[in-house]
């Protein structure tokens, strides 16, 4: 079933939630509860949309009419189409992403993709960013921190140096993190090491995690619980065979992801409010050689 929500009045297409001062989560209307939601971070001179998503809604009009009148920029956390498909709406704005993300987006746009028919629209050339780069909004800066590809090889996270929001994309979220980067070959040990490294780089400067899926913000304490979740799996605690959640495995996209070709070995591990969906054959680095 499809409903054209884009024909609704623009102010009915999103519900905005204040995460921190000048920091909005835009909950877009959709039938597919798996869809991600953009954040808008506003500085003195500019505003940046983190993950434009693939919501078939008037995102740009909504932001310009109801959120901010500052000049817009875009930052993508990773290449996946559900996070980047609407970048075409901002082709006249600076768009930031990693080199790997841009390479993957170009490859994906060559393919026929029924879920993202707008792939080929609005060619743009992004500004490539990497670890340690700073995006300056005027009186507010975002630090780019490399995350070495557990959900996606193309990932980068953004730390808001003013209010301590950490924008993680799909490398950390409240429903489940799918450890599926490098075509499903990345392992729990690598994810654990990434989280430990991230915590070191944050060095106490983050107060909350702002993911695009399944609720934002999340308490920064959950970073520690996710590290524990990884360590429990590495110590032999096996997750549940039923990997479904409120937002995963019940929608039409279901298991249409590479890592789930091997469903017999996929598990869900839940610990202290964190959830990981992973493959029991890919726990340690040695499993992925
Ligand atoms: Fe993703």
Explain what the structure shows:
The chain has helices spanning 59-67, 81-84, 99-110, 181-184, 188-202, 222-234, and strands spanning 14-20, 23-28, 39-42, 47-50, 72-75, 95-97, 127-128, 134-136, 141-146, 156-160, 165-167, 177-178, 208-209, 218-219, 266-271, 274-279. The protein has a single domain (5-250, 261-288), classed as 4-Layer Sandwich (Metallo-beta-lactamase, Chain A), CATH 3.60.15. α5 (188-202) runs antiparallel to α6. The mean pLDDT is 90. With 289 residues, the chain is an alpha/beta fold. Bound molecules: fe (ii) ion. Fe (ii) ion binds next to loops.
Task: Please render the helix and strand layout as text.
Blueprint lengths: L13 E7 L2 E6 L10 E4 L4 E4 L8 H9 L4 E4 L5 H4 L10 E3 L1 H12 L16 E2 L5 E3 L4 E6 L9 E5 L4 E3 L9 E2 L2 H4 L3 H15 L5 E2 L8 E2 L2 H13 L31 E6 L2 E6 L10
Parallel strand pairs: 4-5, 5-6, 6-7, 11-13, 12-16
Antiparallel strand pairs: 1-2, 2-3, 3-4, 8-9, 9-10, 10-11, 13-14, 15-16
Helix pairs in contact: 5-6
Bound molecules: fe (ii) ion.
